[in-house]
Amino acid sequence: MKILIDLLSTDYGLMSFIVIAVIFVVMTWAGIYVYLKARKP
Length: 41
What we know:
It is built from two helices and no strands. The chain has helices spanning 2-9, 11-39. The chain is rod-shaped and about 50 Å long.
């Protein structure tokens, strides 16, 4: 539980959380993009 408190309450924790969220969104977008491009003939 201390890890979550540090992640959401400290400045370096928030920056890490933002970086993790951005990477997750970009990888999801890239996966969907590649999947849709691969389905087109």
